[in-house]
Design goal:
The chain is an alpha/beta fold. It is 55% helix and 14% strand.
Length: 870
């Protein structure tokens, strides 16, 4: 009945465990535990009623160590208790024996589990030496009290000697824990990632050796070879690892105990009267074998782990080094790290590229001295002046042999090392040099500009104080604007480059040629090995520059005017010297161009005044100092005002009224005449728009305007802005202005006629080809010069010429205007000769527009008296 009850309880426990997540572990452990108990009791019980071999506790302890959940452990212990009780019951033991002995084994396992966790932690690693030692200590200590309790029970129930019963119980339990538990734990443990997994062939070969050796030892009884198996166990532990070492020990234990019970093997040579003693010897052998194998395997595993860790750290360090090298190589700067002994620790590819080295020429560990020698031998750094001190922070610049510029930032680290960064700023240096060159040189010709010229003149003036002579020249291309107007600005730029090259060929390398702007150049001659001859240099320049040059496919000749000043006679400052040379240049131009002139302070006072006036023109335009007066042009037959001629006047705040005869030539020379002329034209057209519709407006043109290709377009824009009909505008141009550039002038006049603007020839009769103008030019009026009007009343020949000119014009359909009418006789004769219009002081002086009264009847008259002058 009792056996049936225990079996039923065991069956119920197993059935409940099946529904648990750890059911396979619990059921398997309970079954294995029960079978082990039954076999141990039925086969190895001695006279003390204690089993000499007890592997069951090793099975339960291994299960407890591998079971992850506490609840599963409780169920596991309960199941093993029932399995133990069932096995005892099946063996025929009484209830008292069953309850007592069945509770000792699980209790011992629970105690061992607690002690192992306390000693080794939650995860038991039997591949570590100290973990093995602690585990062995626990397995030797845990059975002491349970063995004592079980021996006491055997003494009370069966009358067995306590000491013998305790010894048997203790040895069998401790050996079971030591042999079985490590084998199961190691079989379930994860493989050591740092250990080499042995091949199946190697495992088979070693276990075959162990089997042959163990059978050789235990199947004969004549030679005591038991402990010769220990080296083989150690070899397996060394070669195959902890898992196979535990399996080998388990195999030896099973073989040795089985053979010993059969009376085989070396133990049979001992005293036949004590089988227990033989079992103890075999158990001692098994204990030594398992301890040795586990310790050796743990030591090997520890070494493998350390080796693997070193390899991991080394691999990680290598990866970090590669990452560092990649990061350093990604930098735009070169980097080189030196240790405290001035040896290279790290350098990136940019550093090697800057100095033209390979990674094999400057490996880590290279000393600074050797590195400098390598750089010199590679031709990167100069032989001299390339020493480096690594003991201070510094920022230096290095000029390499190949032309590179490198900025070196050096910083000393706390550990005594030095980090150096190398920045290749060659492009920046070149850009800086280029910018400096552009700042000090003319872009078009490459010559020094005014700023650099001024600096060198300042230096020359300093040298002049020590007796060294210098000469400053200002050079101007004659009629350069005509080249621009006729051939275009591209041709003008080409001419400037040609002139610059020719000037270079005329002077020494130490002399300075500069372009000041436009067509103006400057030359600074300084005494070198030989004194400078300014006159000889000027003549050579004039001869070279006047040589023909091909521009836009046309052979062109140009000249040059030169003004020369000599410090300190002509000035002690740069400004004074340049002004003196400018005055001399003006004098050379006034004397006929294509010449040179020296500054003479006493003789050039008038030229100084003219140059001052020329410089004042720009300010006058900005300050709006110009104004317009109008002189009436009357009809010859009726005397009515038919037109007004616009005349520009300049009222200087210091010099007073300046005659157009003085400032117009200056404006034509410096190019301001275009701006002044456009202003006069627009102001006159705007005033004319407010006049009666029958009155025209007449405006004088300069030779520069007539040669300007864009002039007609500007006239059209002015007429559009002022809303003045083109037929009310008449433009006056002299014969000389036309002859300066006849081809372009004809085109401009033709375009003006197509626009509807009439053109008059001013001062007709004093030019070289007055009659040819009448034949070839699209003109609508001629204004007969006053030289033909002055003697109309007294000179018959003059009167005949005048009448002939008027008759010729009428026959050609060209209107006439007589200029300079100052007497009544002149007016009558001109009118009787058939002249269309008259103009002169007799008929009205130039005056402001508001002085005219156009509301007094059909024939407007002048409101102001005739003697008003402005």
């Amino acid at each position: 009945m009792e056996q049936a009850r225990y079996f039923t309880a065991l069956t119920d426990s197993i059935e409940r465990a099946r529904t648990h997540r750890d059911a396979p572990l619990i059921v398997g452990t309970a079954v294995a535990y029960g079978v082990a108990v039954y076999l141990a009791i039925s086969l190895t019980r001695n006279s003390t009623y204690v089993a000499a071999i007890w592997p069951a506790n090793g099975i339960l302890l291994a299960a407890l160590l591998t079971c992850p959940r506490p609840v599963s452990r409780y169920i596991l212990v309960a199941a093993c208790f029932l399995a133990n009780a069932t096995a005892l019951t099946l063996n025929g033991d009484q209830l008292a024996t069953v309850l007592t002995f069945a509770s000792v084994g699980p209790t011992e396992c629970v105690l061992a589990f607690y002690l192992v966790h306390r000693a080794c932690g939650r995860h038991v690693e039997l591949t570590e030496v100290w973990s093995v030692i602690k585990f062995v200590a626990v397995c030797l200590a845990a059975p002491i009290l349970p063995a004592a309790f079980g021996a006491a029970a055997a003494m009370l129930i069966f009358g067995a000697p306590f000491a013998e019963a305790w010894t048997t119980w203790y040895l069998s339990d401790s050996l079971g824990l030591l042999i079985v538990t490590p084998t199961i734990v190691l079989l379930n443990a994860k493989p050591n990632p740092y250990s080499v997994v042995p091949s199946s062939e190697s495992v088979l070969r070693h276990f075959l050796l162990l089997t042959v050796a163990s059978l050789t030892v235990f199947l004969q009884s004549s030679v005591p070879l038991l402990f010769t198996l220990v080296p083989i166990s150690v070899l397996i532990a060394f070669r195959l690892g902890s898992r196979y070492a535990a399996m080998a020990t388990l195999w030896l234990t099973v073989v040795s105990l089985t053979c010993t019970y059969q009376g085989w093997g070396p133990v049979s040579l001992m005293n036949e009267q004590s089988t227990s003693t033989g079992i103890w010897v075999v158990q001692l052998f098994s204990f030594v074998s398992v301890l040795t194998s586990l310790l050796v395997a743990a030591e090997i595993a520890e070494r493998d782990r350390l080796k693997g860790e070193l390899e991991r750290v080394s691999r990680l360090a290598s990866e970090r080094r590669e990452q560092l090298d990649t990061a350093l190589d990604a930098m735009s700067q070169g980097v080189c790290l030196f240790d405290r002994d001035a040896r290279v620790v790290v350098r990136n590819s940019q550093f090697l590229e800057i100095y033209g080295l390979t990674k094999y020429q400057a490996p880590p560990g290279t000393s600074l001295i050797d590195l400098l020698d390598i750089c010199r031998s590679a031709g990167a750094v100069p032989e001299e002046g390339s020493t480096i001190e690594l003991d201070i922070d510094s920022d230096t610049e290095q000029h390499l042999v190949g032309g590179r510029f490198v900025r070196i930032n050096q910083r000393v680290l706390p550990d005594g090392g030095v980090i150096c960064t190398y920045t290749d700023f060659t492009a920046e240096k070149q850009a800086e040099t280029e910018l400096l060159h552009r700042t000090l040189h003319d872009v078009l010709t490459g010559l020094p500009n005014r700023r650099l010229l001024v600096e060198r003149i300042d230096e020359a003036l300093e040298s002049a104080r020590t007796g060294k002579q210098a000469v400053v020249m200002l050079l101007d291309i004659d009629y350069f604007k005509s080249v621009n107007d006729n051939l275009g600005h591209a041709a003008g730029d080409g001419l400037l480059r040609v002139v610059a090259d020719r000037l270079r060929s005329c002077v020494r390398e130490d002399d300075t040629i500069a372009r000041l702007g436009g067509d103006e150049f400057a030359l600074l001659l300084r005494d070198g090995d030989q004194p400078c001859d300014a006159s000889a240099v000027a003549r050579r320049i004039l001869d070279v520059v006047r040589q023909p040059v091909v521009l836009e496919g046309k052979l062109t000749r140009v000249g040059m005017s030169i003004g020369i000043a000599r410090p300190p006679e002509d000035g002690t400052t740069t400004d004074e010297i340049l002004k003196a040379a400018d005055v001399a240049l003006y004098k050379a131009k006034r004397s006929g161009r294509g010449k040179f002139a020296f500054f003479d302070a006493a003789a050039d006072a008038g030229a100084c005044s003219a140059r001052r006036l020329e410089s004042e023109l720009r300010r006058a335009i900005d300050e709006q100092e110009f104004h317009i007066v109008y002189q009436p042009i009357t009809a010859g037959s009726s005397g009515d005002i038919a037109a007004l001629e616009a005349l520009v006047r300049w009222h200087h705040p210091e010099l007073g009224v300046i005659s157009p005869a003085e400032f117009i030539p200056l404006a034509e020379h410096n190019g301001l005449i275009v701006e002044i002329g456009d202003w006069v034209l627009e102001k006159a057209c705007r005033d004319a728009a407010s006049l009666p519709a029958g009155i025209k407006i007449s405006v004088n043109l300069s030779r520069v305007q007539v040669s300007d290709r864009d002039f007609v377009a500007r006239v059209a824009q002015i007429l559009e802005r002022t809303a003045l009909p083109p037929g009310r505008l008449e433009l006056e141009v002299t014969e000389t202005a036309i002859l300066d550039n006849e081809t372009n002038a004809c085109r401009v006049l033709e375009e003006l006629r197509e626009l509807g603007v009439s053109v008059a020839i001013d001062d007709f009769g004093v030019g070289q080809s007055a009659l040819s103008c009448l034949r070839s030019l699209p003109i609508g009026r001629i204004k007969i010069d006053r030289s033909f009007v002055n003697d109309l009343a007294t000179d018959l020949r003059a009167r005949s010429i005048f009448v002939a000119v008027v008759s010729l014009a009428k026959s050609l359909g060209i209107k006439t205007t007589a200029e300079g009418i100052e007497t009544e006789q002149q007016r009558i004769i001109a009118a009787l000769a058939g002249c269309d219009h008259l103009q002169g002081y007799l008929l009205g002086r130039p005056q402001a527009l508001e002085n005219f009264d156009f509301d007094r009847g059909p024939a407007p008259r002048i409101k102001a008296p005739l003697d008003i002058a402005s």
